[in-house]
Design a protein that fits this description.
single chain; alpha/beta; 6-stranded mixed beta sheet; 5-stranded mixed beta sheet; globular
């Protein structure tokens, strides 16, 4: 069961801000303020808005945390509070943490390298090594809440957050934990990351209209927009959650993982790998294609990914594909990379609970290769019982999760 959720996203701090932004179709994309981007082809991003981090975290601790760690810790604290979870009476030994991230503390590594080059080795960046390694988000969360169970990090690029939740699901299934804090976190708005993605021509260059730049499945899409943030969830064994009176938001009931084995950065054009992943997740959940009402798409706004994902959905769902609601929240949030699958999971849980599907904004010109119902531009009230969350990544790694609305047992 999912019993708690927390989020730090470009739409604001907290799950409430995320959901309000998504359901009203508000884009959080704007000009880059984190650095001077005038030399770059892409000069837009979806940044987390400024907030008083010292009202949430101790000043001494923040100096030892890269931004991706701070975001994960803040989101985890919200999720713990939301779940009314206190780790007492030995529960700490049965509670674990898994956090996914694409590149971890790369900004801290860049800071350390620049300091070394400019000032020399005597002027080391404090706590550089312990700030940048990918497992420090899970480590800090475990230290703050006292979780002594399974503790791990997942680094599978844009699928990392969903892989982390899937691994947590399996650990609970296999009896190795009663409670898991799981999700993803990323903060990579730095010149070198923009340089790297732009060398692949992966980024949108609609710099004069940033809020219209991310347009998944639209024929005029020209690339993704980089975002940042974190999403964390509390997963809990059903009887354990029921017995302590925890909120029961929804159920994780299936998970699949596959590889395209096709190309370092491009998806298989036929969508074979992601289609097999959806099939595996449905089989794991013991559901048929007709049981699914909604798909929270990976939907990056890149020409290849959106077409491939559409092909995969049609391959798996056949005639039922045209009856599905399919939407891409990256149209409003940008691409949160390793955090994207976790934030998409939160959005899907809320869609199941509230009966509202977030829209795909900026959908204006239909693409013959992308011909499904993408919930264009306005949220939609839909009765949803079962939903999929898709997350696909560089290296051809895929993750799909099946979520079910909790209606009591």
């Amino acid at each position: 069961m999912i019993t708690g959720m927390g989020a730090v996203t470009p739409l604001g701090i907290g799950v409430k801000a995320l959901w309000e932004g998504l359901t009203t179709g508000r884009s959080a994309i704007g000009p880059i303020t984190r650095f001077d981007a005038t030399r770059h082809r892409c000069r837009i991003a979806a940044e987390v808005p400024e907030f008083d981090v010292l009202s949430v975290l101790d000043k001494k601790d923040t100096k030892r945390m890269d931004l991706f760690v701070q975001y994960a810790v803040i989101a985890a604290q919200e999720a713990m509070t939301d779940a009314a979870l206190v780790l007492t009476n030995g529960l700490n030994n049965r509670t674990g943490v898994i956090v996914g991230t694409g590149m971890g503390g790369l900004p801290k590594l860049i800071e350390g390298y620049e300091t070394l080059e400019k000032r020399g080795p005597r002027y080391a960046v404090p706590y550089m090594m312990s700030s940048l390694i990918p497992n420090m988000a899970a480590g800090w969360i475990s230290m703050r809440v006292g979780a002594r169970g399974p503790n791990s990090a997942v680094s599978t690029a844009c699928a990392a957050g969903l892989h982390a939740i899937g691994e947590a699901f399996r650990l609970i299934q296999h009896g190795q934990a009663d409670v898991m804090l799981a999700g993803g976190s990323e903060s990579l708005i730095t010149p070198v990351v923009f340089y790297g993605f732009d060398s692949l021509r992966a980024l949108s260059i609609r710099n004069e209209a940033p809020q219209r730049a991310s347009r998944p499945f639209d024929k005029e899409r020209d690339g993704f927009v980089l975002g940042e943030g974190a999403g964390m969830l509390v997963l809990e064994e059903y009887e354990h959650a029921r017995d302590r009176g925890a909120p029961l938001y929804g159920e994780v009931c299936g998970f699949g993982m596959t590889a395209d084995a096709h190309h370092p950065t491009a998806p298989s054009p036929t969508g074979d790998g992601s289609a097999r992943c959806m099939d595996l997740a449905l089989a794991d959940a013991r559901l048929s294609t007709s049981d699914i009402d909604y798909i929270c798409a990976h939907g990056t706004s890149t020409p290849l990914n959106d077409a491939s994902e559409t092909q995969a959905i049609k391959k798996v769902f056949g005639a039922h594909a045209s009856r599905l609601s399919v939407s891409a929240i990256k149209s409003m949030l940008g691409h949160l990379l390793g955090a994207s699958g976790a934030v998409a999971t939160i959005a899907t849980v809320l869609a199941l609970r509230e009966g509202i599907v977030p829209p795909t904004v900026n959908y204006e010109t239909p693409d013959p290769e992308c011909d499904l119902d993408y919930v264009p531009n306005m949220a939609r009230r839909v009765l949803i019982k079962n939903a999929l969350v898709n997350a696909f990544a560089f290296g051809g790694t895929n993750a799909v999760m099946v979520l079910r609305k909790f209606e009591g047992i």
